[in-house]
Amino acid sequence: MSLEISTFVLGPLSNNTYLVTDQKTGDTAVIDPSLGSQEVLDFVKKRSWTLLHIWLTHAHFDHTAGVKLIASSQIPSIPVSLHRLDLPLYQDSGGARKFGFTIQPGPEPSYYFEDRQILNLGESHLEVRFTPGHTPGHVVFYAPDENVVFCGDVIFRGSIGRTDLPGGSFQQLLNSIQTKILTLPAQTRLLSGHGPETTVAMETSDNPYL
Fold this sequence. Notes:
Blueprint: E1 3-10, E2 15-22, E3 27-31, H1 38-47, E4 50-55, H2 61-64, H3 67-71, E5 80-83, H4 87-91, E6 111-113, E7 118-121, E8 124-130, E9 139-143, E10 148-152, E11 155-156, E12 159-160, H5 170-181, E13 189-192, E14 198-199, H6 200-206
Parallel strand pairs: 3-4, 4-5, 5-6, 10-13
Antiparallel strand pairs: 1-2, 2-3, 7-8, 8-9, 9-10, 11-12, 13-14
């Protein structure tokens, strides 16, 4: 195992924010920083890791509320990456106002993800998989050497992501799950944006939506 994964349950919607760290180099990315992300920064400092990236599975406000805090914690600021199709949602503060929240907008993204793009983190590698349906530009991050996927809000233990919000599509979401998630090895761990982790095998056999 070359990646260390640290999980933080943050914000009023109990978001899972993840730190992904290459154990050899200490190079670190944060995935979907939510409200209360000072806890994440404190943890990185305590471990003497080097925080290099902010990776967003999608741009809903509860997955981006900590972007400004984390990005501005260093000079130059930590770059933000997401899929270009979620840029309008990101620029609209992730739809926060519709839910009665106000969040500080993060900086403009520095990079845009592409399907099957390889992300390098120290000596570790993750693959971007384009998984629209919950939002138009949703992606997941697959680390094959670790048998783990950071799923955002595509799939949960015994459930799937909402498709009733602007830009959602039930058919797209099911196609994303069937072609980009359930085709992975059965033992692959699925780390979702909310709730407990699960596996491809568990969701293939037990998920009532699939």
